[in-house]
Amino acid sequence: MSEHSSAGLLPGTNAPRSPITAVQVVPVAFADPPLLNSVGVHEPFALRAIVIVHASGGVHGLGETYGDSAHLARLERAGKLLIGTDAFNLNQVAARVEQSLVDDAGTGGHGTGGMVTTTSLTDRVLSAFDVACLDIQGKVLGVPVSTLLGGAVRDAVDFSGYLFYKWAGHPGAEPDAWGEALDPAGIVAQAHRMIDRYGFTALKLKGGVFVPDQEAAAIEALRAEFPGMPLRIDPNGVWTVETAIRMGHRLEPVLEYLEDPCLSIADNAAVRSAINLPIATNMCVVSFNDLPPAIEAHAVDVVLSDHHFWGGLSRSRLLAGIARTFDLRLSMHSNSHLGISFAAMIQLAAATSNIDYACDTHWPWKRAEDDVIRPGVLEIRDGAVKVPTAPGLGVELDEQALARLHQQYLDCGLKKRDDTSYMQSIHPEFELKSPRW
Ligand code: GKR
Ligand code: MG
After folding, report:
1. In this prediction, what percent of the chain has a pLDDT beyond 70?
2. Is the CB of 32 under 6 A from ligand 1?
3. How far from 245 is each of 6, 94, 267, CA to CA, in Å?
4. Distance from the first to the final alpha carbon of the chain
5. How far is the CA of 283 from the centre of ligand 2 (A)?
6. How far is Cα 72 from Cα 78, in angstroms, rounded to an integer?
7. Which domains does the chain have, with CATH numbers?
8. Predicted TM-score of the model (pTM)
9. What average pLDDT does the segment 229-239 reach?
10. Which atom of ligand 1 is least distant from the CA of 362?
């Protein structure tokens, strides 16, 4: 069998080989509602980069990551160095990505609106290539990515309904279908809409927007409306230790976990020792380097994994092993994303038994027609998504939709996510402050 056959086997061996022949990095934009958070408000468009890795035999793999221009430049550089690398050799893929970043200053282009900024640069760039290579491997071998990650332990993945304070619409535009949510009643109404549509069985409120007591009142209103529903709040680290302890005591009877009440490992450790609630994070434990100090300080109980900054699916499995060893639990973090990321999140959660909380997703906030994958595979029903069983990630690229969303990227003029400047363009007095309360 030739080296370039679609089965991709080396002559005379059983070792699959899929040399990478080309890498495309395509920036895209999709409409995003005015969701409020501690650093400002979502802009009218969210940016993503779609990474298409082509390998011998005409097979291609898909990855998705942040769309900030600095990140795009790094993806391009890494992509060039990957030509000729075997998509089955993830160690070599990681080494080449690392090599591409040797001269990188390592600043800017996080794609997370200035919120999660201490992640590993290499892991952030590697992630989309790791996912795309696993997609290739799955397609060559005829198995879903969950099989490559050790095998599915569940056939559906639970997600939580991700509630946001929001304006009725972007300034100057018509109100969107979700309407305004700026107080407890608005959040309860939003939760009803989420649950009616998607059947979520857990809810998370993005906090850090209003004074903590108002946000606690919103959680209490959710508790009164949905008895027994697991609830979480995430103020993205803008509370002082004192405020976090006060809020923690108030919400002890109500919350499943408290997410990033404070920013640092030390501050979260102080809060955790004073309250009777699990602390979760996607802000103070965001790379492998953060694990030893966080474990030593007993700072957190739950790590919200995110393959986009933990180096992809393979390295997220490494995180899962470490979490099991040190008795940490795992949930999953999300940023505004499209279907390729969603498929990767689902394959990972399907194969990782200790991701056993309902995961976060921004999926409901995106218009169904705004995606680069063919529709119909990833549907949230009863709060869960069935794990695709087709080879690879189980989703297919829609070339026309990709072209449309790329045009949208060119037309919208945004080059990086910047929730703060957008907020200041509407409310010039808005100041970035952490802790704020
Ligand atoms: O989309 O505004 C947002 C979120 O606040 C996001 O940027 C966070 O990274 O969802 C995230 C979180 O849990 O911190
Ligand atoms: Mg969070």
Report:
1. 97
2. no
3. 59, 41, 10
4. 66
5. 7
6. 10
7. 8-142 (3.30.390.10), 147-394 (3.20.20.120)
8. 0.96
9. 98
10. 1
